[in-house]
Design the sequence.
């Protein structure tokens, strides 16, 4: 018979460590290991993830033998504890909790106090001598069972509870009397009866059976499915179910319950960090209903200071656990330290103190902010707990991106404060700064977020049902809850700024607004939150860029990463300031400078337009001249040829287009030269790949449709005025003559724009094709590059230019361009008297180039994969159209596992890349190969680039640190795999 159920200590003894999490889930494995290590764990057992999967496979039926094994394990627990399940004199109560392999905080279900009935509640009173406590436990069971197992809306129970609380002085749960709780139990049962037309089950075993089913069912609950989709957790893992003896933190003021991290999960500081509530049950801390107290005295004092609470009042009303129960506190510290050493990582602990006795309920790897992840990894290396390799592997590359996220400009924040825009201060639960429209429900957050509007989700507190809105929001603000509340934990996991427990806010969900100090913020109003300080502002506050040099631990971690990685990390940068930023972040070269971006600058655009508008006519005349020259040379005695030559020369000399074209090129030369000088200076001694002009020409021109509309409007206006007899323009108005001139100009522009229009510009006249049609443009660019190199070299800088041709598909294209490039280079270096070494290479961004890489490498000294275009052309998908239309659907229906424009499609695009690398290197063994599409900054794609042996990845400057870490992880993973296969 298959074993579905393991007592905690059995799990430790019988399941090998590496299988434990798979089979028992994270929580179950932690309990097994704690029990195995002799720590105080309330007895219990775990039903395996296999049982959960078998349950679903059988159409939501317990697999054979499961129930019998549960009964058997329950019996063993009864023996250990000395109580019996359902015993009216001395009842055993259990909790039933989910627990998957990967932590999914609050996403699945838990039922507490299972085993209480009208009968056993009397036994609980006898056991504890505390009627109030017993009825409180019973009403919690009915409430949780009704809500979670049976789906009765939670607020129906809360309404009843609130009604009773309102009758008390203190208005808190703890103010309810035993009689009130007994009445509440009756009302809860009546509610249950009314909602379900059935009695609340009085058979404890029936309660247990249904609770286990509910835990299994919650694996496919909407929240859990959404969460797994977001975190890419497979849906076939299943959840385990833990059944454990209840211990009570609400048995008076010598009891408590709490959660703690062995280090500060927000900053990474090495200090026990946590909160507890005296006389409370576990759910009270997590749910954020009562504001919890600090565990350590130091944290408690800091908290009091921040809240303007005197030391005397603090000691009296808000004591730390350290002060309230010093003995138990010390024992807890020891347990925490032991667990951290055992797991060699930060632990997130749940504990309960029942009448002075410590019980450990959970240990798991603690979620942490990016900042904490880096600090903890680096500290643990210095403490000798883990190796540098482990430290590098422990930090998610995407996470460090957070550390380099913008934060508020302090000066702007100060001004906002002075203006009185500081609304309130809450708990700094997850760092970072965010500005956005206030919204008050998750669905709106999701809808607005989808439209690209920045939103801050504002809630009294969050629950797992809000997660989709939290994902869509830039930041999260809650009125209630502590540093370990749902909002705080999930925000940290998502890497979003959050301010929680901001009690000053009065949120009115119905009217979609909150008020604070007489100010009202409505849905859609801008607010700004600082998750690092807990401040909440009205209005928008500008953000500034962080500085890597100040992030000492991150710099150290990245320096270790640099020791391990084989891939170089370059950056895509078009301007010197980007290049400097990239270098500061550790870039070792520029993998792509898109020269056309410089053309878009407003002071250049007029010349760029002049160049484009005149290029076709000028080029036609110049081509004619060249043909005439060749003919005349070939037939020097032919008077006809000589005559034609003179005519062609005259035509060129007389042509306005040629003049304008040349003038534009002349104007652009010095500005481009200056651009390149800036790049070479910033990257002194490092390679700089400059790509020649790529986009279709019309991108630089006004849009055809708009121009057409303007022309039509102008024509109509002129006609109308003509109809008015003796029309005279008023002051400030143009005369009809002037308008006609304007019209003529616009019409000429319209004709030119029309001539350049293409049905499918992405596949039209762009890239290398432009250079072949208009070689003067690339002559201009190459001259600018080489003259810039000569200039900086004379100033003692080492330029390492690499000239890159976009969109080539055939070696002949490259041969033609290369001849031009080399010719210009010879000219410039001879004239300047400076030696410049440069490389000539091409982007590989159309399938044909990848297919013919072997030939192309005869001319190209380097390849750079332009995976943006390569993905478009391999898939035959236009990115701009696809992302808004069908790609989302493809993702939802899992036709594609990931957006291929974000994560490299290894199967298709990757296959071509691998082939191109191999064939290119066969022709030219020292071929330099890199990637400069967006994928160059994506960790999974970087791993693939490592695998196929690229020399470098090139990413946007802000992603350079991410790429350094991802490249190191790729190398370490490969090393680990090699060791394994040996
Ligand atoms: C590419 O296609 O991947 C690329 C880098 O070029 P662009 O994005 O400029 O088309
Ligand atoms: Mg491209």
Sequence:
């Amino acid at each position: 018979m298959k074993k579905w159920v393991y007592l905690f200590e059995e799990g430790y003894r019988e399941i090998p460590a590496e299988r434990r999490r798979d089979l028992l889930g994270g929580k179950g494995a932690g309990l097994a290991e704690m029990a195995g290590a002799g720590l105080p764990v309330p007895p219990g057992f775990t039903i395996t993830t296999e049982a959960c999967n078998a349950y679903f496979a059988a159409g939501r039926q317990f697999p054979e033998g499961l129930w019998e094994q549960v009964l058997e394990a329950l019996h063993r627990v009864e023996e250990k504890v000395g109580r019996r399940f359902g015993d009216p004199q001395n009842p055993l109560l259990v909790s039933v909790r989910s627990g998957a392999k990967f932590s999914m905080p609050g996403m699945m279900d838990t039922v507490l106090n299972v085993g209480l009935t009208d009968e056993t509640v009397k036994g609980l009173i006898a056991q504890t001598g505390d009627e109030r406590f017993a009825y409180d436990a019973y009403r919690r069971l009915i409430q949780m069972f009704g809500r979670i197992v049976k789906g009765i809306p939670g607020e129906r129970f809360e309404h009843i509870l609130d009604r009773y609380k309102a009758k008390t002085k203190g208005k808190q749960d703890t103010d309810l009397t035993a009689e009130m709780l007994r009445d509440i139990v009756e009302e809860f049962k009546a509610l249950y009866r009314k909602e379900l037309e059935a009695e609340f089950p009085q058979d404890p075993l029936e309660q247990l059976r249904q609770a286990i089913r509910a835990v299994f069912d919650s694996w496919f609950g909407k929240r859990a499915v959404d969460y797994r989709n977001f975190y890419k957790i497979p849906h076939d893992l299943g959840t385990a179910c833990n059944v454990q003896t209840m211990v009570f933190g609400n048995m008076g003021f010598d009891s408590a319950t709490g959660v703690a991290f062995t280090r500060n999960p927000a900053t990474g500081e090495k200090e026990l960090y946590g909160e507890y509530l005296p006389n409370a049950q576990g759910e009270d801390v997590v749910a954020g209903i009562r504001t919890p107290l600090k565990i350590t005295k130091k944290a408690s004092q800091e908290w009091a200071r921040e809240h303007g609470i005197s030391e005397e009042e603090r000691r009296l009303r808000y004591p730390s656990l350290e002060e309230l129960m010093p003995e138990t506190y010390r024992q807890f510290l020891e347990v925490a330290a032991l667990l951290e050493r055992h797991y060699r990582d930060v632990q997130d602990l749940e504990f309960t103190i029942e009448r002075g006795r410590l019980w450990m309920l959970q240990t798991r790897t603690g979620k942490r902010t990016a900042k904490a992840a880096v600090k903890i990894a680096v500290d643990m290396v210095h403490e000798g707990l883990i190796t540098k390799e482990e430290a590098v592997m422990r930090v998610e590359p995407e996470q460090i991106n957070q550390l380099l996220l913008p934060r508020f400009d302090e000066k702007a924040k100060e001004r906002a404060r002075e203006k009185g825009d500081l609304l309130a201060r809450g708990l700094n639960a997850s760092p970072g700064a965010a500005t956005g429209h206030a919204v008050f429900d998750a669905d709106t957050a999701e809808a607005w977020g989808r439209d690209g509007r920045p939103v801050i989700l504002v809630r009294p507190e969050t629950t797992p049902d809000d997660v989709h809105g939290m994902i869509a929001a830039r930041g999260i603000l809650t009125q209630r809850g502590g540093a370990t509340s749902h909002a705080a934990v999930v925000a940290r996991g998502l890497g979003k700024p959050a301010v929680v427990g901001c009690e000053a806010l009065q949120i009115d969900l119905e009217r979609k607004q909150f008020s604070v100090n007489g100010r009202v913020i409505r849905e859609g109003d801008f607010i700004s939150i600082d998750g690092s300080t807990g401040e909440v502002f009205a209005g928008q506050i500008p953000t500034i860029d962080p500085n890597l040099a100040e992030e000492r631990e991150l710099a150290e971690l990245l320096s270790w990463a640099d020791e391990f990685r084989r891939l170089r990390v370059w950056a895509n940068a078009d301007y010197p300031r980007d290049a400097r930023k990239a270098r500061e972040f550790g870039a070792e070269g520029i993998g792509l400078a898109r020269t056309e971006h410089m053309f878009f600058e407003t002071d250049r655009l007029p010349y760029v337009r002049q160049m484009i508008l005149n290029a076709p006519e000028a080029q036609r005349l110049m081509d004619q001249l060249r043909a005439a020259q060749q003919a005349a040379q070939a037939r020097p005695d032919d008077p006809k040829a000589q005559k034609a030559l003179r005519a062609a020369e005259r035509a060129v000399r007389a042509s306005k287009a040629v003049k304008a074209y040349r003038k534009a090129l002349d104007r652009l030369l010095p500005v481009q030269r200056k651009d390149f000088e800036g790049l070479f200076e910033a990257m002194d001694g490092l390679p700089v790949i400059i790509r020649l002009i790529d986009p279709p020409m019309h991108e630089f021109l006004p849009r055809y449709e708009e121009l057409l509309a303007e022309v039509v409007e102008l024509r109509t206006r002129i006609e109308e005025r003509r109809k008015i007899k003796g029309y005279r323009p008023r002051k400030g108005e143009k005369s009809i003559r002037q308008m006609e001139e304007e019209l003529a100009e616009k019409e000429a522009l319209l004709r030119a724009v029309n001539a350049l229009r293409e049905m499918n510009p992405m596949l039209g006249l762009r890239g290398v094709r432009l250079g072949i049609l208009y070689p003067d443009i690339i002559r201009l660019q190459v001259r600018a590059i080489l003259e810039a190199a000569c200039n900086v070299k004379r100033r003692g800088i080492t330029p390492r230019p690499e000239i890159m041709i976009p969109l080539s598909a055939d070696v002949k294209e490259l041969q033609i361009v290369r001849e031009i490039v080399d010719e210009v280079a010879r000219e410039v270096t001879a004239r300047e008297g400076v030696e410049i070494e440069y490389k000539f290479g091409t982007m590989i961004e159309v399938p044909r180039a990848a297919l013919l890489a072997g030939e192309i490498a005869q001319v190209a000294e380097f390849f750079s994969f332009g995976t943006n275009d390569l993905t478009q052309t391999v898939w035959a998908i236009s990115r701009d159209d696809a992302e808004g239309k069908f790609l989302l659907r493809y993702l939802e229906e899992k036709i594609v596992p990931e957006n291929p424009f974000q994560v490299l499609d290894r199967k298709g695009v990757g296959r071509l890349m691998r082939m191109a690398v191999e064939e290119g290197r066969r022709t030219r063994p020292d071929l330099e190969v890199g990637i400069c599409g967006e994928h160059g900054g994506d960790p999974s794609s970087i791993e693939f680039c490592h695998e196929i042996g690229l020399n470098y990845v090139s990413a946007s400057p802000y992603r350079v640190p991410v790429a350094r870490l991802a490249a190191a992880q790729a190398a370490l993973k490969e090393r680990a795999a090699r060791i394994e296969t040996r």
